[in-house]
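The records we work with from here on pair a chain with its fold. Each token is a code from a learned vocabulary of local backbone shapes. A record is reproduced here so that you can trace the correspondence yourselves:

_____
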Amino acid sequence: MRPKILCLHGKSQSGAIFRNKIAGARRKLERTYELHFLDGPILLQDDIPKKNHMDNNDSTSSSDDVPLTYAWWLRNDENGEHLHVREAFHYIQRQTEGKHYDAIIGFSQGGTMATALALTGLIPGIRAVVTAGAPCVDQMFSEATDFTQGNDVIVQSGLDIPKFHMAGETDAMIPVDSTRALSDRGGNGILVLHEQGHLFPTRAAPVKSILDFL
């Protein structure tokens, strides 16, 4: 049986979209690992075309064949507060209950979630976290700590899990410094820069680095 990796997409994506976008990396990873792509808990209504979308019974696409997109949490633009973070942890706990995963891969918002999730102990057996284009969100870590009810042993175990963070030198959405802060905050992190923008790298060299890390 191949080791399993939980894959968490970025905001305004879905499991299927993320799976397709990283096809080059996915095919190489799937030679060794079984990948499970999870949809986020929050359906982004603003991403759904307004025309007749309520008439569509297909849960994976809109009436105009535009894929449905999701988020792990939302941000209040007025005060900067991040909303539904605790609910996201509960959602992943329910979705992964009774399943074993050896690692978590996350892109952008999903990478932040993956890093904070490691500190909660919700998914026993995680031995590695890989992220790309993921920002540091302090509230995620305070919520993760609260989720453990202050159990320092669980938090420290999560901090000790090796983490591989990739940041794009030309990423116009997530500054390298934010991913660097995530690496520091998440514990036991390695930060690797690539020359591309806001994406999960699929070129041969970074994919080899991911495989070597895992």
User: Anything to note?
Assistant: DSSP finds eight helices and ten strands in the chain.
